[in-house]
Amino acid sequence: MKKIAPLLIGLGAISYGIPGSLFELANHQGVTSGILLVMTFLISCVIFNLVGIVVPRHQRHAHSHRQAWIVMLSGTSMAFTNTFYIMALQYISVAVAAVMMMQSVWLSIVLAAIADRVWPSLMQLLSVLVVLAGTVMAAGLLPLDGHVSLFGMGLAFLAALAYAVTIQFTGGAASDLHPLTKARLMSIGALVLVAAIWGPTIAPSANWGLALKWGAITSFFVMVFPLTSFSYFMPYLPMGIGPILSSLELPASVIFAFILLRQTVTPLQMVGVAIIITTVIVTNWLQVRHRQQQSWLK
After folding, report:
1. What pLDDT digit, counting tens, does each position of 56-89 carry?
2. What is the pLDDT of residue 119?
3. Rounded CA gap, 142 and 269, in Å?
4. d(Cα 69, Cα 92) in Å, to the nearest integer?
5. Rounded Cα gap, residues 201 and 196, in angstroms
6. What is the pLDDT of residue 196?
7. Which residue from 189, 117, 131, 180 is spatially nearest to 160, judged by alpha carbons?
């Protein structure tokens, strides 16, 4: 398991970089955002409930009603992530939205500091500043000619915040649950929220055939594969390696937007992407090395 864990986590991160382009392709075929998101989370929920049959009977349920509610509540943050993200795509490109989503890296640091009541280290603060500088370039804000929608970037930032909440909230929540049981409960919470937000927007004349097709495809990349791979294989990784591998989401988003949507990516944007990824990798590598040195001294 330890040998294939980095590969599966990396593929899971790349999987998160694909849905933005798929959402755009579905919209071009007339599938509205509302029905697409509802079908995506409905199919994911059905799949996790069916696959949950293989889980031993005594591990299929939460240990208490309170624990079940906490895990389902954590799933709503995933629904908010995709809701804000798909709304942002109406105003900005997939590449820019992906860059804004990477803000979840430093937002996770801030949320962890608030939750643990511990100030971030100097290295973490410096990494935040560098990531912000890289964001300005990667999002195409230079030169400042106003061609990038600030409203769209704001929506993408809210998606990043919701994703950071997901990381923070689910990290220590119900860690004793079976991975598939936890994924099933999270998918239920996400589906309920998405249906409440987007259900009223679905027109009676919606193309359910196309929605089913695109929902099945996006559900795999949005929920089924990444959530399964992270739930099973993240515990096998040394602490700090997960964020490094998760940074693969950004280049994957940019590459698939270029291949599938033919979106233009400027050299300055690529430099910004490189700066963000390098900062994430170096910061987490230094943290891992520091922890190893401390363990050796003990």
Report:
1. 888 778 778 888 888 888 888 888 988 999 999 8
2. 73
3. 9
4. 35
5. 10
6. 93
7. 131
Rounded mean pLDDT, 185-194: 91
Structure-token match 């079940």, residue found: 68
As a whole number of angstroms, the distance between CA 199 and CA 202 comes to: 6
The more confidently predicted of residues 272 and 185 is: 185
pTM of the model: 0.79
Around Cβ 289, how many Cβ atoms within 10 Å? 11
Q: Which pLDDT score is estimated for 64? A: 81
Give me the DSSP letters along 74-91: HHHHHHHHHHHHHHHTTT
For residue 132, give the nearest of 152, 112, 110 by alpha carbon.
110
| Cis? peptide before 143, omega within 30° of 0 | yes
Element (H, E) at 249: helix 249-261
User: 75 Cβ partners below 8 Å, 6+ apart?
Assistant: 185, 186, 187, 188, 189, 190, 193
The kind and range of the H/E element at 152 are: helix 150-171
Instruction: Please name which of 129, 136, 131 lies closest in space to residue 102, comparing C-alpha atoms.
Output: 131
Beta-carbon-side half-sphere exposure of residue 274 (alpha carbons within 13 Å): 7
